[in-house]
């Protein structure tokens, strides 16, 4: 490889870096689950999660770190995320999808995720959340 070859150089900061690292990802996840627990408009989504949110908080934090380009905490603990397979036991339709997205978008706004990053994430979150639907509406 030539000394001036930059093909393996990073193309810029990762979304994880743009977010501000683990502390900011944890803050986003905590705000997401706090909103889910407190806001009546997320009641259907909250009911899907069982009596406690502690396990879900950790798993989403671990997953998002890696998904955003940071440490692969989730994969190190559980292997490939297999998101759809892991969510099949839960009934997910449009209402659950829409509440998940609204809750995450509110959390991103509350946590002041930079606008350019928030726009990118909104598209990715929608695509993923829509793919997770497993119940016809």
TrEMBL record:
<dbReference type="InterPro" id="IPR012292">
    <property type="entry name" value="Globin/Proto"/>
</dbReference>
<comment type="similarity">
    <text>Belongs to the truncated hemoglobin family. Group II subfamily.</text>
</comment>
<keyword id="KW-0349">Heme</keyword>
<dbReference type="Pfam" id="PF01152">
    <property type="entry name" value="Bac_globin"/>
</dbReference>
<dbReference type="InterPro" id="IPR001486">
    <property type="entry name" value="Hemoglobin_trunc"/>
</dbReference>
<keyword id="KW-0408">Iron</keyword>
<dbReference type="InterPro" id="IPR044203">
    <property type="entry name" value="GlbO/GLB3-like"/>
</dbReference>
<keyword id="KW-0479">Metal-binding</keyword>
<dbReference type="InterPro" id="IPR009050">
    <property type="entry name" value="Globin-like_sf"/>
</dbReference>
<protein>
    <submittedName>
        <fullName>Group II truncated hemoglobin</fullName>
    </submittedName>
</protein>
<keyword id="KW-0813">Transport</keyword>
């Amino acid at each position: 490889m030539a000394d001036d070859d930059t093909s393996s150089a990073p193309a810029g900061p990762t979304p994880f870096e743009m977010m501000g690292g683990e502390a900011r990802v944890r803050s986003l996840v905590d705000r997401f689950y706090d909103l889910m627990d407190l806001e009546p408009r997320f009641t259907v989504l909250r009911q899907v999660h069982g009596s406690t949110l502690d396990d879900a908080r950790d798993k989403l934090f671990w997953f998002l770190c890696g998904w955003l380009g940071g440490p692969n905490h989730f994969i190190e603990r559980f292997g490939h995320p297999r998101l759809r397979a892991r969510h099949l036991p839960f009934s997910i339709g449009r209402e659950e999808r829409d509440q998940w997205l609204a809750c995450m978008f509110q959390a991103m706004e509350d946590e002041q995720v930079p606008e350019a990053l928030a726009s990118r994430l909104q598209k990715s979150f929608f695509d993923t959340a829509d793919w997770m639907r497993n119940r016809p509406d």
